[in-house]
Fold this protein.
Amino acid sequence: MNGSAFKCSSLSKKYSETEDSILVLDGISFEVAAGESVALTGSSGSGKSTLLNILAGIDEPSSGTVELKGRMINNLSDSQLAGLRNRELGFVYQFHHLLPEFTVLENVAMPLIIGGMRVGAAKRSASPLLEKVGLEHRYSHMPKELSGGERQRAAVARALVNKPSCVLADEPTGNLDARHAQVVIDLLVELCAENKTAIIVATHDTHVAKSMHRALVLRDGKLFSS
Ligand SMILES: Nc1ncnc2c1ncn2[C@@H]1O[C@H](COP(=O)(O)OP(=O)(O)OP(=O)(O)O)[C@@H](O)[C@H]1O
Ligand SMILES: [Mg+2]
């Protein structure tokens, strides 16, 4: 084990639309160490979401490989991939994606329940994390009853509840004001540091990028250090 959370080699992604094809990722290789935090920047349309989705196994590369904690994800079956993702990966979406028909506590506990834990035990495990993100008074509220920042904090708690080895976040502060954006990012950085979780955050926000150990920029399908 070399201690890397993510390693990808020669990743390319081409979208073919009739006769036009778009090469969004053009042979990208990089590695993120356990406990390292990385900002992924680049202009709109540069391929940030595409790259995160490939790293998460949500989308497939046209060529190249992705290793998560030393395991190649490309050749796994759907159920193997779902299991690996559930154990090793937390994903924070731009628009939180909380399930509207479940309470805040149930939402945060959901990855544990999906992983096979009983509902009561999952809720007991999830509640200290909700306290950490300052939502201890909101356990039984529905997502629609929370502010945007509170929902994002709940989404961060949900991404971390399984103590994943890596968190991927796609513009997690895109719809928050500067103060709440910083709260969400500080929280993510702090909680990840506690567990040596690697973080990759796609962001347009320079303050967010500066909160990470290093920043990478996507341009013309290539990845550069910034
Ligand atoms: N399913 C698809 N089919 C065809 N082209 C796609 C598809 N998904 C994304 N693209 C194209 O790939 C490029 C990269 O998109 P992507 O969403 O990864 O960019 P991004 O860097 O996340 O942008 P933003 O900052 O606006 O979120 C864009 O030009 C987009 O139009
Ligand atoms: Mg995007």
